[in-house]
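Journal club prep, notes for RB
We'll compare a predicted complex against what the paper describes. Inputs for the magnesium ion case:
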Amino acid sequence: MVVPWESVVPELRERLGEKNYLAWIDPVEAVPTEGQVLLRVPSVFFQSWIERYFLQTIRTTVERYAGSDCAVRFEVVADRKAVRDEQDKRLAPEPAPKRRAPRIGKLIPHYTFDNFVVGPSNEMAFRTACSVCEKPGKAFNPVFFHGGVGLGKTHLINAIAHEMLRRRGRSVIACLSAENFMNQLITALRQDQMPQFRDRFRRVDALILDDIQFLSGKERTQEEFFHTFNALENGQRQIVLTSDQPPSAIVGIEKRLRSRFEGGLIADIHPPTREMRIAIVHAKAGRKGVDLPPEVAEVLVRRSGVSVRELEGALNRVVGMADVRSVPLTVELANDALGPLDSFRAAVSVEAIQQTVSHRFGLQIADLTSRRRGRQVSFPRQIAMYLSRTVAQASYPRIAQEFGNRDHTTVMYAVRAIEDRRSRDAAVDQVLVGIEAELREN
Ligand code: ADP
Ligand code: MG
């Protein structure tokens, strides 16, 4: 078969990069005949340069279009002197193609395992991530991480990509959002470059796709992703996905895709415990070169919600204010900087929480404020206390008072107990997420 050079060109251009293409391939005249492609080059030097850096790529590309073995030969054409002169002038500054393996998507440099705080809420996800790095494509495939917003999914998958590259520098890794994947698909469709698109994604050693829930209702992208997924899985390439919900709960995803997701390992990430949040806020401050006093860390953790992103936001505000005012980081400053957060949160009252929680568990508000001890009331009561603290931001003494004049240490104990259970028990987390959403809506 004679290779249709016009169809090879766009792909070569993509693979070699625009600069290399214009400098080295564009000036070449290609003469395809049966079983071979003759490249007429302007100089011997030109030929050796192409042979050295691009021949492998040219061969594999040509062969895909030839459908069988196809030789690539050279002929030096002296009358292309003008081109040659032009080329020879450019030789010195033209850099050799980068050695580093191509990568799809950008990694966030500091989202590494080193900076990832591990505890009960994410231990399972962390261990899974480690296995993936140790045996890509072999231990678990696909791997599906899910968890609420700001709980570290993007951080974790970036850490996986960094670690894979550290272990095997030549791996080709695609680490990108599902949205970016869709945009690349659309571009490829528009520019009539689907073969290149498919090739780009099917050549990777690992495909790491963030926020897969974005594909909901995007049928064309799901279709394409399905085929990519199958090709990679068959080739034992690692697939890692994240979503804000478990596969079973994402709406608008084709059944066949969903069942593929469910066929792999599913690991969930929960809101971090208090200890973890303290460790995280210290780690984040450390990265900024800020010496964070423990009592200020305490305030930050106490006054932000479950999301780590929110905690980071609080840290940034406090550090920012200290900078602007040129004052040290103190509890007073922290409370000052976080003031508006409080007034915003106060929109949810303790009473509203008592009402919502008692309703959800089929109780009366009086049950929550009573002295009754059975599990049926004590667990919902602890939940209501926890939410009074985390959502309504009421003080411990005030919560103690609102729940039948108890001792404030009882409230502190309840908040910690629920925080701990939430980080270990998916069912408890689920219940809390539901109640929090309801509170926000009302
Ligand atoms: P998600 O993708 O789940 O919405 P991100 O990965 O973007 O969340 O995390 C939000 C922020 O919280 C990031 O700055 C991330 O570094 C930080 N973060 C989350 N979990 C951890 C953790 N366990 N250790 C350190 N930082 C964390
Ligand atoms: Mg994310």
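Talking point for the session: The chain has four domains: 5-82, 103-269, 274-343, 345-441.
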